[in-house]
Amino acid sequence: MDSFDYVIAGAGTAAGIIAYRLGEAGKSVCVLESGPADRNLFLHVPAGTMMTQRDPALTWQLDSEPGAGLDGRRIHYMQGRTLGGSSAINGMVYNRGQAADFDHWAQRGNPGWGYEDVLPYFRRSERFVGEADDRYHGRDGRITVSRRTYRNPIGEAFLAAAEAYGYPRNDDYNGALQEGVGRYQAIIDGRWRVSTATGFLNPARRKFKVDVRTGALVTRVLLEGRRATGLEYVRDGKPQTVTARESVIISAGPVQSPKLLQLSGIGPEALLREHGIAVHHALPGVGENLHDHYNTRVTARARPGTGGLNMQARGLPLLGQIALWALGRPSILSLPVAMLHVFAKSDPALDEPDFYFTCSPGSLQRPGVLNDFPAISCGSAMMRPQSRGYVRIRSADPHDAPAIDPNYLTAEIDRIVSIRALKAARAVMQTHPMADLIETEVAPGLDVQKDEDWLPYLKANGVSSLHLCGACKMGPASDTLAVTDPRLKVHGLEGLRVADSSVIPAIPSANTMAATMMIAEKAADLFLEDARLGRR
Question: Which of 280, 293, 467, 491 is catalytic?
Fold first, then answer.
């Protein structure tokens, strides 16, 4: 029998941490990943994300359904499909969110998930480099988190302009308060990107003999009555199975996890019957509650000589940057996608910030390709969107991509706050000394002033922040859309857990990577405790 204590579907952001912690506790673990190992050099050079996000060998390339709130426009997504998952291909920003985000999770029927409960799990993974308050930061974790101090005229002008506009300086948005302007923290160690593969999964293979199988597409959860017993997968064209003595853990990400449950006959009854799938366990919330941060940019042409990525990332200047990176010196090759931030309130009466915008000394003409003129761009988003959508299989074929629709901008408050965020980004760009570096606004253009003009621009130009989450939401049994309980056990089944960003009940005011790492750390403790107590 090909059998282990735990089998895990997926080797992404959460799975790597869970596998390490279970292996560390002496459990036998098998991890199944449809993508390849993380040997591609671009997965380890921070700037390589420009290449890896477009590589179908390393990512799931997906498109949304035509969005009702976007006048029928589709949105493109990239999800990691390699060891480390999206932590190996994302923008590297380490952002936890606000304490209130997690207190809200607990208030919605998820005891043990309040901020004071989860802070130790954030700290456990983290090895923070530099000055920080150790009440909020870890120093001994396996994921290096550092401040990016690369300086250029655009970045320094942005910080000064944001302060002049009225935003307070905040050098640690992952500390006591999030609000303010400052520099992002990132999962970068010197000149190298860090992922949960480099920090957890690959060491787990060496130290604890965790069995990691790449090129293994999981097709179905094996069920005996109400008990999950293993996983079916295809590798080298051959169907195979692996069984679990303790638990099956679904950790395939915000899209693939609900898809796998649905393919296994666990989900909305009508959807399963529509595609000829036997209903093993009717669970209406599987695939529902999908949401994301919808990001829209203000872009300006910078004056010649101001510096920036567009001019440094081509020709001889790029060769110079490569040489600097090879020597371990500051270089654009060792930067995260976003470097500077503002977290702010759309209404002064609010207790906490509800939107953010970032500043980048560059701009794209299309994904992966920088504009050929010096530029400044500020991307903005509402942090707690109310719009909700779905992930739904299109057929019983595991190779078919599911239908995806977060229903961006269908909630009126999302449109209102998103427009206010764009206006705030423009206002900072028009403030000295930032304004002194700008030649003209390229997008949306200064003819866009009124909300009725901003809204068409918002609908036509926004993109995903790649923070999809929530389609296997955690919640009490009384919540008809909850898929797992607060211990991450699938409602109504034994031996089946879900642990990744899909269990997030409401998106944090942040990129979702840090929260996903926290979920994984806590999940491992919950699973081990259940095993000790004989709870399946």
Answer: 467
